[in-house]
């Protein structure tokens, strides 16, 4: 049994991961801004904005999984919001790092989330792999600083693993629940020209990859946490409609309309390139859901 501390444990991925780790017999605790001692789960108080963290959270942990960060698609990307998106990831990682360093804590591993936004908001024929540089745009720079904050743990001799994650498919919420609304209404339509790629991963696979990152001492550095099958926005939407047995004949939603509604954030929907899963496959990880149709059937079956 390992003692595992998770930041962002109340989020979509965090909740699923906590459940799977506990089912495997691990002792799991989360970092929480809630001081309510009546909480049904084991938690430790922290407040990254004010650099506060319960020292016991670090002292009692063998592994730390860092998932904390404001939702990238929740609000418009104003300058203030961009700063929140960056600081919620970087400041929180630095707070954990400083406490680990202060205690001279001998962690077995620090495992951090990152995102495929590292490679930039572009659509190209290039297949991006972990050795490629971070893009010089907002998401690229944000992910680079996020990963730099995580890689500080290498200085302490702590095995550090970073999972650059694509679109997480989960039936409990997230992006998929929003994508289902027009499709269920019979209004399935590609976004923009539909040629942008949409790297994705089933929630079960993502959780299993985090668990593998705990158990496999050879996993160090960055890994792309995406399914090995490539899909464009067009083919993804068409597959979703087929699984739901809904029509797929509406014209594409124009690029200008999406941009007028979402501003700069529209690039999350209108751009995307292929992301290689080869490095993860080289670890002998076997995907539960390597194919999109099977992943959607699993998530959407009644």
UniProtKB/TrEMBL annotation:
Residues 4-224 form the NAD-dependent epimerase/dehydratase domain. It comes from the Bacteria. It holds the Pfam family DUF1731. Residues 253-298 form the DUF1731 domain. Belongs to the NAD(P)-dependent epimerase/dehydratase family. SDR39U1 subfamily. NCBIfam families: yfcH. This is TIGR01777 family protein. It comes from Ancylomarina subtilis.
């Amino acid at each position: 049994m390992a003692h595992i501390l998770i930041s962002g444990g109340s989020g979509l991925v965090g909740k699923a991961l906590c459940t799977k780790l506990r089912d495997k017999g691990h002792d799991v605790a989360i970092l929480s801004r809630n001081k309510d001692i009546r909480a049904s789960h084991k938690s430790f108080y922290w407040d990254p904005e004010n650099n506060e963290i319960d020292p016991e959270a670090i002292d009692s942990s063998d592994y730390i999984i860092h998932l904390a960060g404001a939702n990238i698609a929740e609000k418009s990307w104003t300058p203030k919001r961009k700063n929140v998106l960056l600081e919620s990831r970087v400041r929180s990682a630095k707070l954990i790092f400083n406490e680990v360093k202060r205690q001279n804590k001998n962690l077995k591993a620090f495992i951090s989330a990152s995102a495929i936004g590292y490679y930039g908001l572009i659509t190209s024929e290039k297949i991006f792999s972990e050795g490629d540089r971070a893009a010089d745009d907002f998401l690229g720079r944000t992910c680079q600083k996020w990963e730099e904050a995580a890689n500080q743990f290498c200085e302490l001799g702590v095995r550090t693993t970073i999972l650059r994650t694509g679109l997480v498919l989960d039936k409990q919420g997230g992006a998929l629940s929003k994508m289902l609304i027009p499709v269920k209404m019979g209004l399935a339509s590609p976004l923009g020209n539909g040629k942008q790629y949409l790297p994705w991963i089933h929630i079960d696979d993502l959780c299993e990859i985090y668990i593998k990152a705990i158990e496999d001492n050879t996993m160090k550095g960055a890994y792309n946490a995406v399914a090995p099958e490539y899909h464009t926005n067009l083919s993804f939407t068409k597959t979703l409609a087929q699984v739901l047995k809904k029509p797929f004949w509406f014209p594409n939603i124009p690029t200008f309309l999406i941009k007028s509604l979402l501003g700069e954030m529209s690039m999350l929907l209108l751009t995307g390139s292929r992301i290689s899963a080869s490095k993860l496959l080289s670890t002998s990880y076997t995907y539960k859901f390597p194919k999109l149709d099977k992943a959607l059937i699993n998530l959407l079956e009644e």
